[in-house]
Design goal:
Elements: H1 2-58, H2 61-64, H3 66-89, H4 96-147, H5 152-173, H6 177-206
Helix pairs in contact: 1-3, 1-4, 3-4, 4-5, 4-6, 5-6
Amino acid sequence: MQRRREVRSARRRWVWATIATVSAAIVAFVSLGAAHSRAEAADRLASRAAGAVDAARGADARRWATDELTSAEESLRLGAIERRRQDIRWWIPNYQAAEGHWRAAEVRATEAASMAAERRRHAEATAHESIVSAEGAIAASSRLSSSIYGGTSQRAALSEARLRLGEARIYLRNGDFTHAARSADLAFALTQRTNAHTTAAVARYADDG
């Protein structure tokens, strides 16, 4: 009888041990599957964020939306750091913090691309307007100087204005709209100096003395 009880007890222990082992294996399998799914989801989000940052760089956000692009790049970097920390430290990593950084990176990069495009359009339009104004002013000053001699200072200023206008056109062709507008505005200012010399010459002719 004692022997039978020992056998039954041993069998029960074996059954429970088997159940525990199988349960642990199932839990491990499910946990690994969940971890793999989380890793795949994190990979997709990281890829979207990186793609958005690359698109912003391609939109020349480095020039036109520097702060916004820098912020997006920093969020992308922080996400990668948190991802590595989770992968190293934990059996079942938690990517929630990393995913927050990647979402922020995607949003900021998209904003940077949009802002860069808008600022570029505005800068290009401003450069065109400045060049057109300078061209008109130089043409008017040239007609005036051909009729009334205002001296060497007048001719020097007009010559420099033409030079600056040429620079502005080169900058415009190269996509450097900021310098294009600056050179065109300087050309316009030089024509005003030319007109001042001409006005002074006319005043001298009108003076009976």
